[in-house]
Amino acid sequence: MAEHPKSTSKRRGLRAVSGFLFTAFLITSLFSYHIYRLTSFEMVEKIGTTTISSMNEVQSLFKLYYSELVELAEQSPEADLVLPGFDIQLGVKLKDIKGISEDEFGNFIVRSLLKRIYYEGFSNVIKPSDLAGVDKENLRGLNDVADGFVNKKFNDFIFLVFIVSTVLAALFALPFFIFSSGWNRPAGFGTGFVVAGIPALLLLYTRSKIEGLVSSDDVAAGMLRGAILPFVDNAASNYFIVLLLGVGLLLVSASGIFITKRRKSKAL
User: Fold this and answer.
1) CA neighbor of 260 nearest in space, from 180, 185, 183
2) Which of 64, 106, 115, 120 is in the most buried spot, having the most CB atoms within 10 Å?
3) What is the C-alpha separation between 255 and 253, in angstroms, rounded?
């Protein structure tokens, strides 16, 4: 029995709406997942330690204070450790530097400072009076970025966006499947995955540009090489998998439609 035209039209409309929403939430899910990873403490720590490791002047300054702080740790192990050269609390005790080598001291200082900034907020840890020699406009800009995006609160918010969008994508996948039929099902999902996976091409292009910048030995090149490039590689791989899955589903759909039409033509 043929399906009523109005019923068919309604079914197509529901398929189009559920397919659009599935794709939109899939895109949001993938994007928020990578922003979540980019703004995680592990990534912030990696960027910070990689950058400092490339700054020889800063490393020399840390080594200059190392022996003095080790002696102070013996005398007053419960005293608070402050950022050498500044009056900024690092959230650790002097006793915590025991067992840390001179070469690892710089990374320990940076890691401790970043941990406080990440979990407590930049403006709560660093005051303008603590950095008298720093340009106030640059400090305000850094403060806005750090308090807005580089902190645990923002990271938790992005994780919530990821969870909600993933659940919604899964929910809308069900009516999208139900209101599709035959080989339109793999074609519909394949199109959604291809659209969601297109950023893989942009990331591959971005990677090629970054590779052209990492050959030098400056601070920015060290950060790009040690932290940003591995992140871009991982993100590109994830998007590329989604893209390949979409292409595979479209090929399955096209093959199925071709075989079905061929069988029908032979039957006639």
Assistant:
1) 183
2) 106
3) 5
